[in-house]
């Protein structure tokens, strides 16, 4: 696919990479920029676009931070697609059912991203897998992802199961065996839905197409 596309000089391969917090300068961003550096070397004719919510930072400031803080030097064929609805990903927007709220918020952000640029290839890099079907089935993109931070980890489940009161487990829940059981069920259901969500969307579009 990429070879055929790159041979067509009138239409460069456009690769969109979803990383709303690309200017954070952490370990997840280090992985992002090193991966992008490798892609630039392998596909020098491709155009790379980063979907970011860091609207306060210019492209020059972002790339300078990548170079000075993370020691990653990138070519200049990178463009930034600024998203203005990133607040829907913030945990403080959802005091209850935070993961579900963030997942639904990512769908809104995904539609904004697709509306601003529909690439040939879309890569999700932050664990918001609910965005992928939007680009795959509505945008018609080739899609892929890598998961640096899983949405639900074994440590999260263990803390809830042990009834530890921490940032992801309110004390009122930790004190109640019934609420603890309910939260564990919620976590397992959410993990299952996040995996099977793409299959559900695919079936929906197939049925919708048959109806037409």
From TrEMBL:
<protein>
    <submittedName>
        <fullName>GDP-Man:Man(3)GlcNAc(2)-PP-Dol alpha-1,2-mannosyltransferase-like</fullName>
    </submittedName>
</protein>
<dbReference type="GO" id="GO:0005789">
    <property type="term" value="C:endoplasmic reticulum membrane"/>
</dbReference>
<feature type="transmembrane region" description="Helical">
    <location>
        <begin position="185"/>
        <end position="209"/>
    </location>
</feature>
<keyword id="KW-0256">Endoplasmic reticulum</keyword>
<dbReference type="GO" id="GO:0004377">
    <property type="term" value="F:GDP-Man:Man(3)GlcNAc(2)-PP-Dol alpha-1,2-mannosyltransferase activity"/>
</dbReference>
<dbReference type="InterPro" id="IPR031814">
    <property type="entry name" value="ALG11_N"/>
</dbReference>
<feature type="domain" description="ALG11 mannosyltransferase N-terminal">
    <location>
        <begin position="14"/>
        <end position="193"/>
    </location>
</feature>
<keyword id="KW-0472">Membrane</keyword>
<keyword id="KW-0808">Transferase</keyword>
<dbReference type="Pfam" id="PF15924">
    <property type="entry name" value="ALG11_N"/>
</dbReference>
<dbReference type="InterPro" id="IPR038013">
    <property type="entry name" value="ALG11"/>
</dbReference>
<keyword id="KW-1133">Transmembrane helix</keyword>
<dbReference type="GO" id="GO:0006487">
    <property type="term" value="P:protein N-linked glycosylation"/>
</dbReference>
<comment type="similarity">
    <text>Belongs to the glycosyltransferase group 1 family. Glycosyltransferase 4 subfamily.</text>
</comment>
<feature type="transmembrane region" description="Helical">
    <location>
        <begin position="93"/>
        <end position="111"/>
    </location>
</feature>
<keyword id="KW-0812">Transmembrane</keyword>
């Amino acid at each position: 696919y990429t070879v055929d596309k790159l041979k067509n000089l009138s239409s460069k391969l456009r690769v969109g990479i979803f990383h709303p917090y690309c200017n954070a300068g952490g370990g997840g961003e280090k992985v992002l920029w090193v991966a992008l550096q490798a892609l630039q070397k392998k596909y020098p004719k491709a155009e790379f676009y980063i979907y970011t919510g860091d609207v306060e930072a210019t492209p020059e400031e972002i790339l300078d931070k990548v170079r000075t803080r993370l020691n990653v030097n990138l070519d200049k064929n990178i463009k930034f697609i600024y998203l203005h609805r990133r607040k829907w990903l913030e945990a403080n927007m959802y005091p209850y059912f935070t993961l579900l709220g963030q997942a639904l918020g990512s769908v809104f952000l995904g539609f904004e991203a697709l509306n601003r640029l529909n690439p040939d290839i879309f890569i999700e890099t932050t664990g918001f897998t609910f965005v992928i079907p939007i680009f795959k089935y509505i945008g018609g993109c080739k899609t892929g992802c890598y998961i640096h931070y899983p949405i639900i980890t074994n440590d999260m489940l263990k803390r809830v199961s042990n009834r530890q009161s921490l940032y992801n487990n309110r004390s009122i829940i930790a004190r109640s065996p019934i609420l603890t059981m309910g939260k564990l069920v919620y976590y397992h259901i959410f993990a299952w839905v996040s995996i099977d969500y793409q299959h559900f969307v695919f079936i929906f579009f197939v049925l919708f197409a048959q109806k037409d």
